Amino acid sequence: MTIGGLAMSDASLWLIAAVLLAGAELVVPGVFLIFLGIAAAIVAAATFVLPELPVAAQLGAFAMWSTVAVLIGRRWYVDYPVDTDDPLLNDRARRLVGETVTVADPIVGGRGRVQIGDGAWPAAGPDAPAGARMRITAVVGGIVSVEPL
């Protein structure tokens, strides 16, 4: 293949893709692009060894190796979680457990609304009048479970 007058093999193109994907992981962290970069590097090695490998087979191999790399990466992060100072940083629901809230709409028959920050959330719990103070015990499916203080 010729790009800008420069002849490049499929292996070279896959290697460039691998480097770009790995580099993009540094710029846009999210721990996902690196696995695609690994897949591209594997396909680069395969096309270096098998230079006549059809493009369709290369794309199929990339899709397969991307899936394998992502699954291995997910398993790795489950087995070896990243230590953090705030493990609930991106889990707003779990951060709410234990917070004290005010009943916005009376809880009647186990259902009502509570004020959390500048919004009102659906709540489940024992009957309580508007203005009562409650403690959040859980958040399931966007519904806040509360108990009296």
From TrEMBL:
GO CC, one annotated term: plasma membrane
Gene3D superfamilies to which the protein is assigned, alphabetical: Nucleic acid-binding proteins (2.40.50.140)
Annotated ranges, domain NfeD-like C-terminal: 94-148
InterPro entries: Membrane_assoc_protease, NA-bd_OB-fold, NfeD-like_C
Segments passing through the bilayer: 6-24, 55-73
Record localization: Membrane
Signal sequence annotation: none
One Pfam family per UniProt: NfeD
Topological type in the membrane: Multi-pass membrane protein
Domain of life: Bacteria
Assigned keywords, A-Z: Membrane, Transmembrane, Transmembrane helix
Name of the featured protein: Inner membrane protein YbbJ
Species annotation: Sphingomonas dokdonensis
